[in-house]
Amino acid sequence: MADMTRALQTAFDERKKLEKQLETEGGGAAGYAFDFAAARAEIGGKLDRLRAAAGATGLPEQPG
After folding, report:
1. What pLDDT, on a 0 to 100 scale, did the predictor assign at position 21?
2. Between 39 and 31, where is the model more confident?
3. 3-state secondary structure 1-64
4. What's the CA gap between 25 and 38, in Å, rounded?
5. Is the model's pLDDT at 25 over the cut of 60?
């Protein structure tokens, strides 16, 4: 469970870093378009790997 908590915190931290970088480079949130489909696919892949590593005991399945 601690690994999942750390992974989630890392994801939040990385998102904050990205937002801060984009604000300094492109003039704020209105200066870029976020690709939610790509983000969803990347997060889904990471969750799949976590499920496989944890034996699918600690993470719920991805909704259909």
Report:
1. 83
2. 39
3. CHHHHHHHHHHHHHHHHHHHHHHHHHCCHHHCCCCHHHHHHHHHHHHHHHHHHHCCCCCCCCCC
4. 21
5. yes
Domain boundaries defined on the chain: 2-54
Alpha-carbon distance of 30 to 42, in angstroms, equals 23
Burial call 24-52: b when 16+ CB within 10 Å, e when fewer: eeeeeeeeeeeeeeeeeeeeeeebeebbe
**Residue position matching structure tokens 């915190």:** 9
47 vs 23: which has the higher pLDDT: 47
